[in-house]
Amino acid sequence: MSAEASVGSHAADSAQSANSQPAFHNSDELRNRGLLGSKYVKLNVGGSLHYTTVQTLSKEDSLLRSICNGGTEVSIDSEGWVILDRCGRHFGLVLNFLRDGSVPLPEDHKELDEVLKEAQYYRVQGLAQLCIGAMQKQKDVFETVCRIPMITSAKEEQKIMASCKKSKLQNNRGNNKYSYTSNSDDNLLKNIELFDKLVLRFNGRVLFVKDVLGDEICCWSFYGEGRKIAEVCCTSIVYATEKKQTKVEFPEARIFEETLNILIYENGRWSGPGGLHLLDARGSGASLDEEGATGGERRVRRIHVRRHIMHDERGPGQQTVYKD
């Protein structure tokens, strides 16, 4: 009886082993043969769920086709989702390209590079070539050579002026209390045009900033080592036909000279011997005021181009100088 029981137990174990063996082969077979027997595919790409067809995934000779025909092993969870260990942010774009043959690409260079990386990983050559072409077009597009900051607040001005070499043009035509002389508008435009030319000429060496919120009508300020070095005021008050007028000058040579002067601060040349001596410049036709607190290094050259002058159109003996 014991021998028969042993034989029966052995037969039962063999039967149980035989029943469990096909289940293991079925799982392994499912992993190896891919998705050949399926029409629809459920993809879990880094937590991003996508539902598509085998036909869509097989349109190009890519990694996705290899997954479908069993050439590449994949993990399939208990609910039938194919697990792909990639970021799913741009996978929808990859699918849309396989569906339509073309797809709108992001304009941002960083995102475009991310799409290219995904296309290369999935070996979707058509999308990869599209991305490379779009990136090449971005390189060919003309990019702005210079960027000019625009001051919008006093706090922003302090932050911008804290670094080394700056040139600021403050122009606000609306600050005028009186009428302008006949040449003032032309001279104001000439100052703005000179500003644009200097921006292009000294790009990368001097930062040029525009200020349209200040109190001055037209005034140039020059900064080095985080402080103001010089100032060229281009406005003056004249008295004509018994009334005051505002006159805007265009001291081109003085502005250009002060722009060159702040280049002395380039690469720390200001700290060497004779640096102060180089900045002690005087120009004809301009009045210069200096403010100092602790020696020459703290001085600010304030140049006012003929600050209070007489109007030349008035007759002899009728010219009057108005002083504040």
TrEMBL record:
Gene3D superfamilies attached to this UniProt entry: Potassium Channel Kv1.1, Chain A
Family matches, as InterPro entries: BACURD1-3, BTB/POZ_dom, SKP1/BTB/POZ_sf, T1-type_BTB
Organism superkingdom: Eukaryota
Bias-annotated ranges (Polar residues): 14-24
Record Pfam families: BTB_2 (PF02214)
All copies of domain BTB, residue ranges: 39-139
Region (Disordered): 1-26
Coiled-coil ranges from the UniProt annotation: none
SUPFAM superfamilies (alphabetical): POZ domain
One biological process term in Gene Ontology: proteasome-mediated ubiquitin-dependent protein catabolic process
One GO cellular component, as annotated: Cul3-RING ubiquitin ligase complex
Gene Ontology molecular functions: ubiquitin-protein transferase activity
Transmembrane segments: none
Record-stated family: Belongs to the BACURD family.
Protein name: BTB domain-containing protein
Originating organism: Champsocephalus esox (pike icefish)
Higher taxonomy: Eukaryota, Metazoa, Chordata, Craniata, Vertebrata
